[in-house]
Amino acid sequence: MKFENNRSGNGGVLTLNNDVKEVGRLTYTIFPEDQKLIISFVLVHPEFEGRGMGKFLVEEAIKFARENSWNVYPHCSYARAVMMRMNDVEDIFLKN
What we know:
Blueprint: E1 2-8, E2 11-17, E3 22-31, E4 36-44, H1 53-67, E5 71-74, H2 77-85
Parallel strand pairs: 4-5
Antiparallel strand pairs: 1-2, 2-3, 3-4
C-alpha cells in the first residue's frame, strides 16, 4: 500500500493505492492562517471496505498535519469517529 498526497493550493487529496488501483481517498482543506487542516471526506472503495483502510487515510492526514504544525478538524463524520477513538491526538484534535 502506498499513500500519495496531491496538494493544490489550500486543498488536496490523499490517496491510498495498492499495486493495481486506488483503494481510497481523503479530501482536505488547509487554513494556514489558522494552522488548521480540515478533513472533508473519506472514501474507501467498496471492495476494500471493512479492512481499516479509512483509518489508515485518517492517520496519514494526521501525520501530514503534524509535519506542518497544524491542528485537525474532522468535518467528515467518519474521520471524527476515528479520531474520537484514538488516544494520541488530543494535542491536535479540534472538536468544534
